[in-house]
Write a structure and sequence with these properties.
Structural class: alpha+beta
Helix content: 25-40%
Shape: globular
Protein name: YqcI/YcgG family protein
Number of strands: 5
Distance between the termini: 45 Å
Number of domains: 1
Radius of gyration: 17 Å
Number of helices: 7
Length: 239
């Protein structure tokens, strides 16, 4: 619990986010399944513009990664709701999101956590994913000013999904079916296909994190401090 929130505020935003995911129109069936099985954890924090909760958030990500490694399973997500702030534009949210991600990654490196060898730390690589506690993560950002309805929530949110889950779904032959279901539901909600949508492993996922339609000239501001001394990923070495 963050000390900057008023009594009852944490429970309010946790319930509000869970209701958002439960809503019939919300397209992500993976998140719905995680919530239904009790494997969607919602952590209420202060402000996405502040590093106040960064140590706490990183600790939660480490525990999430360690628990998953000890007992793997599909459809697990951890969401951080920033109850004390509201992004006023997509650009401002994107900037704050990457500031938090950079801070969290710096802490992971400082604690000498290994970068997941199955993914790349280069945000320009099609194999890029973040890494915390040695596990790769994909981030989904939501906020009040998001252009896509599925990303539009009353407060900024960062949802962290484990990279290994995508690979497991692919190995089990379920990835494409789930992906097509989500796309169809998203089109029903928004009226159009998400222009930033890309298959995992075909282009860098970094451009998808914020939900903003970024131009081809966009460059990710992220730089992991472990990159210089890090060997190739398993995928890169095989190419």
């Amino acid at each position: 619990m963050t000390l900057l929130l008023e009594a009852g505020e944490e429970q309010h935003w946790r319930e509000a986010f869970e209701a958002f995911v439960k809503d019939k129109a919300f397209p992500c069936v993976g998140a719905k399944s995680a919530l239904a099985h009790g494997s969607l954890k919602t952590v209420v924090c202060w402000s996405i513009d502040s590093g106040w909760d960064d140590v706490r958030i990183h600790r939660e990500l480490l525990e999430w990664a360690f628990d998953y490694r000890a007992e793997p399973g599909l459809f697990r997500s951890i969401a951080f709701v920033f109850a004390g702030s509201q992004a006023s534009s997509e650009e401002e949210f994107e900037q704050a999101m990457w500031e938090r991600i950079q801070s969290l990654s710096d802490k992971d490196a400082w604690l000498e956590q290994p970068y997941d060898s199955r993914v790349s730390s280069d945000p320009d690589s099609p194999h890029f994913s973040l890494s915390f506690g040695g596990e790769g993560f994909f981030v989904v950002g939501l906020h009040p000013e998001a252009s896509r309805p599925a990303r539009r929530f009353d407060r900024p949110v960062l949802v962290f999904n484990l990279h290994d889950q995508f690979e497991t779904l692919r190995d089990e032959g379920k990835y494409e079916t789930i992906r097509e279901t989500i796309i169809k539901r998203d089109v029903q909600l928004a009226g159009s296909v998400n222009p930033m949508l890309a298959r995992h492993g075909t282009s860098s996922e970094a451009a998808q994190y914020s939900g903003r339609q970024v131009p081809s000239t966009w460059r990710c501001p992220f730089s992991d401090p472990r990159s210089a001394a890090r060997p190739q990923t398993q995928t890169e070495a095989a190419e």
